[in-house]
Amino acid sequence: MAETTLTAFIAALFSMMNPIGNVGIFAGMTADREAAEAKLIAWKCAAACAITLLIVIWTGGALLDFFGISVDQLRAAGGIIVLLIGLHMLFNKSEHKTSAAESEDAKARESIAVVPLAIPLVAGPGTMATVLVAAQRHSGIMAKVEISVAAAVLCILTGAFFAYSRKVANLLGESGMAVVTRVMGMVLVAIAVGMLADGLKNLLPGLAK
After folding, report:
1. Which whole-number Å values give the CA distances from 162 to 22, 24, 45, 119, 121, in the listed order?
2. What is the C-alpha separation between 169 and 172, in angstroms, rounded?
3. Which of 59, 117, 190, 205 could connect to 45 by a Cys-Cys bridge, CB 3.0–4.6 Å?
4. Do 197 and 95 meet the contact criterion of CB atoms below 8 Å apart?
């Protein structure tokens, strides 16, 4: 996997996971918990994200084959998903986060590390689509190892941001995190357009003429 390709993948995955922008959500959901418990939830969330993404990276291909979905179809569909999420982030709308029902359900849960924090907040459909497209586009074992390592490192980074969410939230403030979210949204929109264009170009060769 070329260095530039790997760098582009890391940038896309970081933008999709948006650990900085999601700090405020994590801090809000753990506001009534002790600091030690909040840190434990953060690291459990990171572990759940890593496990989820690794499963998608290594078994997603078999699932696509089972449903008869091609890489180009996945790339086009993933582009649409990422585009929609990127637009919501660009305009700082809450639709790319958790729904009101999920937020209410989280309040009643004893453990929120896996649902809704890991899924769908961090390792949601857009994040899964991003790693799945990369894994199918670069299907070699070494490429998948590189993708897996990158995903695991970003999950650890997300856990670190969440573990110190109260300090990060106080440092950046609502406006600072909104700016980060909008920048990440712009990056995602640009990446999504490329994913969608590549998928459609191969599915509909006439568009490339």
Report:
1. 8, 9, 9, 15, 12
2. 5
3. 117
4. no
